[in-house]
Amino acid sequence: MKKSVIYPGSFDPLTNGHVNIIERAARCFDEVIIGVAKNSSKNSILTPDERVYIFKKLFKNKKKIIIDQFEGLLAEYVNKKKIYTILRGMRTVQDFEYELQMATSNNKLNKKIETIFMVADGNYSHISSSLIKDIIRLGGDASNFIPKIVEKELRKKLLKKG
Ligand code: COA
What we know:
- The chain is 44% helix and 19% strand.
- By secondary structure, it is α/β, with parallel strands linked by helices.
- The protein is globular.
- The N and C termini lie far apart (50 Å).
- Coenzyme A is lined by residues 8-11, 15, 17-18, 21, 37, 40, 42, 73-74, 89, 91, 102, 105-106, 120, 124, 127-130.
């Protein structure tokens, strides 16, 4: 039986930290489904379609990595896909409380759901999507933290907004 995992997130934008988790997950699972959340409560910069476009370009030759989007409850999406393992990255203890709440809530919504965590690589545990947006908005160099295509798309968007 195929071992699949769902890696959900807002990915606004995707960072090298996320890429690292995805690549490591692809070594542990037969299939990694990236679930780009359409209705994140966060104020997003990139539209869901733009985020999906970035993923598709970046992972176009990786057969194990499937790009998808979802709207509404993660627990329902998981149920629809019939893949009950969720993967999340854990950077610091600050992430723990939020992740614990989400993992517990998802499990309460559907007993079949298990959330597993991958510890973020030390090179990326200090970065976040908000930090990247700030760096670019203020004219800084974020090239060490995000893939080139993300930087290009973000610059287009943020610099246009002014
Ligand atoms: N390296 C670097 N940064 C990382 C990282 C890693 N390995 N893992 C996470 N991050 C950062 C991201 O950059 C992001 O930073 P930000 O807070 O500044 O934006 C943050 O950690 C988390 O973002 P992301 O990984 O994109 O996920 P998220 O927390 O935005 O995603 C959902 C949350 C979409 C999974 C959750 O809101 C959800 O399930 N929504 C659907 C509705 C629902 O079911 N709600 C009830 C849930 S119980």
